[in-house]
Design brief:
Receptor-associated Protein; mainly alpha; transmembrane helix; disordered N terminus; elongated
Length: 353
């Protein structure tokens, strides 16, 4: 995990590199010279190392797409496929601009989603910290008082006391359990059958399901637009998008759509099979684009529409989540009140009596 953080390239650094490379190639500067110059500009040592290796490959006569293909994990399949398409069609400079636009759009969307989920994460973090603070600093001082008075403790207090004792004596074991639990969940989430169930549940959740659908449709539309106008055939474009989608429901649907289109079935007709994943307006506009020969524009139109929907919903996300967070915080406060305040009240009542 730590290695993956150091062996990664920031989205903005990729965008800047691609834009600069497109400008230099358009100016007639040879690709080797362009890569050499840009190697000196990038800040990431890992990126510098990759570009130096790519430059060596280029000097040996290897194509740019083949050189980057070694680093598909860092750049992604779309990156490699678009460069390969640009080389084959002789429009590498133009394709690089398309790629930079798509990466920039995707990067901005990721920032919006992170910003929208910051507040819920902050509240959950504060709640968790409050629980740990209570367990480590407050309750240990009160426990001797509770036990010495020989009073009947509420179940919430007993649970919290047992949890505190466990943390005090077996905190190392507790950390190992937490790590094992987290790792187990991550491994379980990678199992296809489990992923399908999880994705299906999320797609059917109130508000969240709509947000996921809009995000997937924006991703599919913008990728299809970028790939299609770069000269990639629809079947090949769908193959690339399947690998790019993070949702198994859409992956499975896109594979079937790809198989049907490869047999000559119209794209809009193939999409109609999945009304829960693709809304009527999406299907209608794609069908109109096919009939009028403006499919590229249709994808662009749909991409912009659903991207706007994602932005609007992410802005509404805090107002949707806030009541849920207030309920959770309220339950935590009630639990603390039952666990700590009630025994203190019992003690004062006994002393007063």
């Amino acid at each position: 995990m730590i290695m993956s953080i150091f062996n990664s390239i920031g989205a903005q650094e990729q965008i800047d590199f691609i834009n600069n490379l497109a400008v230099m190639l358009r100016s007639g500067i040879p690709i080797n010279t362009s890569i050499t110059t840009l190697t000196q500009q990038v800040k990431s040592k890992f990126f510098k190392k990759i570009l130096a290796d790519i430059n060596r490959e280029l000097e040996m006569g290897v194509s740019l797409s083949e050189s980057f293909a070694k680093y598909e994990k860092q750049f992604g399949k779309i990156f490699i496929s678009l460069i390969k398409t640009g080389e084959a069609s002789g429009t590498l400079e133009k394709t690089l601009v398309f790629l930079a636009e798509w990466l920039d759009r995707n990067n901005n969307l990721s920032k919006e989603i992170k910003a929208a989920t910051f507040y819920p994460k902050l509240v959950f973090g504060a709640t968790f910290s409050m629980g740990l603070g209570l367990s480590f600093f407050i309750l240990p001082k009160l426990m001797p008082v509770f036990t010495s008075m020989h009073i009947d403790l509420p179940i919430a207090t007993r649970l919290l006391m047992n949890f505190t004792l466990f943390l005090q004596h077996y905190w190392c074991f507790g950390i190992l359990i937490a790590i094992a639990f987290y790792t187990g969940l991550k491994l379980l989430a990678k199992v296809k059958a489990v992923r399908r169930v999880i994705d299906k549940i999320f797609l059917n959740l109130y508000f969240v399901g709509g947000l996921i659908q809009d995000y997937q449709l924006a991703l599919i539309s913008h990728l299809m637009h970028t790939l299609y106008k770069s000269g990639v055939a629809i079947e090949n474009a769908l193959d690339i998008i399947v690998e790019s989608s993070s949702n198994t429901a859409y992956q499975d649907a896109l594979r079937i759509i790809r198989d049907r289109t490869s047999k000559g079935v119209a794209l809009s007709e193939s999409i109609k099979q999945f009304p829960k994943l693709f809304p009527p307006n999406f299907i209608t506009i794609i069908a109109v684009g096919e009939k009028s020969g403006t499919l590229e524009a249709s994808f662009a139109q749909m991409g912009d529409f659903f991207l706007k929907e994602v932005y609007n919903k992410t802005k509404r996300l805090p107002t949707i989540v806030e009541p849920i967070l207030l309920v959770i915080m309220g339950l935590v406060v009630v639990f603390i009140a039952l666990a700590v305040i009630m025994p203190i009240y019992s003690i004062t009542s006994n002393v007063g009596g």
